[in-house]
Amino acid sequence: RLEFVGHYQDVCENPASTTLWLDVGRSSGLDLTYQTLNVKNDLSHFPVPFFDPRDNRTNTLPMVFAGAPDVGLQQASAIVASWFGSRSGWRGQNFPVLYNQLPDRNAIVFATNDKRPDFLRDHPAVKAPVIEMINHPQNPYVKLLVVFGRDDKDLLQAAKGIAQGNILFRGESVVVNEVKPLLPRKPYDAPNWVRTDRPVTFGELKTYEEQLQSSGLEPAAINVSLNLPPDLYLMRSTGIDMDINYRYTMPPVKDSSRMDISLNNQFLQSFNLSSKQEANRLLLRIPVLQGLLDGKTDVSIPALKLGATNQLRFDFEYMNPMP
């Protein structure tokens, strides 16, 4: 971590003072040396290292098969892929497929007693669905999550155990003896989709603590994802209502400080930030058919701009942050 700490007096410092600025030369650079750690084969931290929620990069997780998978094996691998994909969210997820090949990174391997990649040919046969973490045969810094089974039915049971969270992950391997069936799913109740059967609060849409807060002389934008079902029929909808309550530090003087609202990088509306204490509540309607309109309380966007994955953005712009 690199942090600049600057002061020019003991009390009453102006954070906007140029005295606190640090000039970095254009020709300067920062050399970093990385050392990969050889972690222990322990499933208690699952899904790490196969997915790390602290990593904001697209997650690439190869899936390894002995050969072309049949229908049962395709179903098992699809369940596991869906589970990892639901956690990747906005990062994105890639699942390269390898047949009887060693991956060059952390990966998931599907194997039965009769059909397994050559690099697992000496692994003991299993008597039940098993999930095990092992070292890469040629690189101890790379881990493989192996889904073992006597047959495709066992692989499907192990995959369901991962997806449903009925497994207590501990140690190098776990046996999936039983998977409790889930209640039948309702239409449009996918966990990463915005609920369509009731109003949804912004608190339900946040993915980390303090996502709906921002601070500083130039507050960072507040972003909220709106993931809608891709086949949601909106042609007869009059719009999407947003009831917004917000708080902010009042500007020291009356100026053009404002809050800008955008959707998918398209400007929607701007609201002044008053220098007097007022109730701050907005009711916005986002029609899905009309084009952009000017107005104080109604905000419209073109239908094509509202997709399955949407990004709602709030920018607080202070013209004179210091008195």
Can you walk me through this structure?
- This protein has 323 residues and is an alpha/beta fold.
- It has two domains: 43-175, 2-Layer Sandwich (Chitobiase, domain 2), CATH 3.30.379; 202-317, Sandwich (Jelly Rolls), CATH 2.60.120.
- The chain contains three helices and 14 strands.
- The chain has helices spanning 71-88, 152-164, 202-205, and strands spanning 59-60, 63-65, 93-94, 97-99, 107-112, 130-136, 139-149, 173-175, 222-227, 240-245, 258-263, 266-272, 281-286, 309-317.
- It has a six-stranded mixed beta sheet, with helices on one face. Strands 9-14-11-12 form a four-stranded antiparallel beta sheet, with no helix packed on it. A two-stranded parallel ribbon has the order 1-3.
- β11 and β12 form a beta hairpin.
- The radius of gyration is 26 Å and the shape is globular.
- Mean pLDDT is 85; it is low at 289-304.
- This is Cyclic di-GMP-binding protein.
